[in-house]
Design goal:
By secondary structure, this protein is mainly α. The chain is built from six helices and no strands. It is globular, with a radius of gyration of 19 Å.
């Protein structure tokens, strides 16, 4: 079964506001997709990150290399190496279309594959995160119109 991951980091007192913003953005993506400028910005950010990784490939920490092999061995994740990844990335990054992203969005961003995982400190005076409040926020967002980006 597939699931998607979205993360929100907030101050201790702003969790519910951050959670609402996260769900609102997810709903906006589901309803309107991404714009061409958002795709272009993502391409530039990914290209920069991949170029940095490629250029620094000989300075990688051994733990990072070992983690790749562990994922390969335990999860059967591919381990082609950074040179191959960089070459393949360059071939395909400009071929990704908004339509393909929309198709994957429709598959991944569903209520059925959403897992909500929360963490907060145990601290005097701080009320634990309430599943009831999370449900209330989810219901509110499900009934709200979202604007285009």
């Amino acid at each position: 079964k597939m699931f998607h991951t979205m993360t929100v980091l907030t101050s201790e007192t702003e969790f519910y506001r951050g959670y609402e913003a996260l769900l609102t953005e997810e709903k906006r993506i589901r309803e309107h997709g991404f714009s061409a400028s958002e795709l272009d910005r993502a391409r530039k950010e990914l290209t920069s990150a991949m170029r940095t990784a490629y250029n620094n490939r000989s300075n990688r920490e051994s733990v990072e290399i070992a983690e790749g092999y562990v994922r390969h061995f335990l999860d059967r994740a591919p381990a082609p190496g950074l040179v191959y990844e960089w070459e393949t990335f360059q071939k395909f990054i400009d071929r990704i279309t908004l339509e393909e992203i929309r198709t994957l969005t429709d598959l991944w961003l569903t209520d059925e594959n959403r897992v909500i995982y929360t963490m907060s400190p145990e601290k005097e005076g701080l009320t634990p995160i309430s599943p009831v409040e999370l449900s209330r926020i989810h219901y509110k967002i499900s009934r709200t119109e979202t604007a285009l980006p």
